[in-house]
Automatic annotation (TrEMBL):
This is Pyrroline-5-carboxylate reductase. Transmembrane segments: none annotated. It holds the Pfam family P5CR_dimer. Belongs to the pyrroline-5-carboxylate reductase family. Its EC number is 1.5.1.2. HAMAP family: P5C_reductase. It comes from Nocardioides eburneus. It is an enzyme of class 1 (oxidoreductase). Residues 171-275 form the Pyrroline-5-carboxylate reductase dimerisation domain. PANTHER family: PYRROLINE-5-CARBOXYLATE REDUCTASE, PYRROLINE-5-CARBOXYLATE REDUCTASE 3. It comes from the Bacteria.
Amino acid sequence: MTIPSTDQPRSAAPLTGIIGAGVMGETVLSGLLRAGRAADSLLVVEKRPDRAAELEEKYAVRVVSHLHAVGDADTVMLVVKPQDMGAVLDEIAPVLRAGQLLVSLAAGITTGFIEGKVPAGVAVVRVMPNTPALVDEGMAAIAPGTSVDDAHLAEAEALLGAVGKVVRVPEHQMDAVTAVSGSGPAYVFYVVEAMIEAGVHLGLPRTVASDLVIQTLVGSATMLRETGTHPTVLREQVTSPAGTTAAALRELDDHKVRAAFIAAMQAAAERSRELAAGS
Ligand SMILES: NC(=O)C1=CN([C@@H]2O[C@H](COP(=O)(O)OP(=O)(O)OC[C@H]3O[C@@H](n4cnc5c(N)ncnc54)[C@H](O)[C@@H]3O)[C@@H](O)[C@H]2O)C=CC1
Ligand SMILES: O=C(O)[C@@H]1CCC=N1
C-alpha cells in the first residue's frame, strides 16, 4: 500500500523513513543530508511536537505520521528507544509490506523480535551505530535478519556508510558490539573529562587543559589508525624507563583501571541482553 503524504512534486530518489528523531535519529538524518540525500527523500516521524517543529525548521524535512512514512518509504529506520520498539512495531505493522527494508538501530532488540511483529517477507537489518557519525566518523555494525538479500544489506550499508565505517557481524556478536563501539564514545568522553579535571588539579587553566587533552586524543587516535601499530607498542614508546609515564601507568594498574574497563563493558553487554528480554 502506498499512501501519498504530499501533493508536492519530489525527487525520484528512494524514500527513507526515520522513526524517532532524538540524538541518534538526528545524527542519521543530518548525516544523510550531508552525504547529498535530498531533504524531500527523507520522511521523519517524531512523537514530540516541539522536537518535530525544530527538525522541520533546521533541516527542511517533512515530519509525517507513522502510517505515511511507512506507507510511502522504501526503507524505514527505527531509531526509538528499545522500550518503545514494541509499540512502534504494532503501530506500523499494518502498513509494512514484504520486500520493504526495516533497519533497526535499537540496542538489544533482535531481528527475531522484530520479525515476530511484522508481516512475513519484510527485510529486517539490525544496526548498532555510534554518535561520532555526527562528524562522519561513525562506526556501525550490521546484522541481517531472515528475509534480507544482498540488495537490502547494500542499502543498509549505504545508509550507515554515509556517516562512517560499517562492518557486517553475525547477530550473536551485537551485544558485544554495543558494549564496544555503541557505548564506546561515552567511555572516551569519561576519560577525557577525568584528564581535564586532573590537568586543572595540577594548576592548568581549564581551557588549556581541555585543548591539551583533546589534541592528545585526536593525535593518539590518528596514530592508531594511520600507523596500524599495536597500542601496546605505541604505549611503550611513550614510557621512558623510570620516567613520568611509568609512574602514571603504575597508578592506573594499582587502581585496576584495565579490570574496571573489562567489567564495565561486560555490564554494557549484559544490559543489551536485558533490553532484548524487554526490561
Ligand atoms: N545515543 C546513542 O549513542 C546511541 C543510540 N542507539 C539507539 O538509538 C535509539 C535511540 O536512541 P537516542 O536517539 O539516544 O534516544 P532519544 O530518546 O534521544 O530519541 C528517541 C526519540 O524517539 C522519539 N519517539 C519515541 N516514541 C516514538 C514513537 N512512537 N514515534 C515516533 N517517535 C518516537 C522520542 O520522542 C525521541 O525523540 C535507541 O534504541 C538506542 O539504543 C544506538 C547506538 C548509539
Ligand atoms: O546507552 C544506550 O543504551 C545506547 C546504546 C549504545 C549507546 N547508547
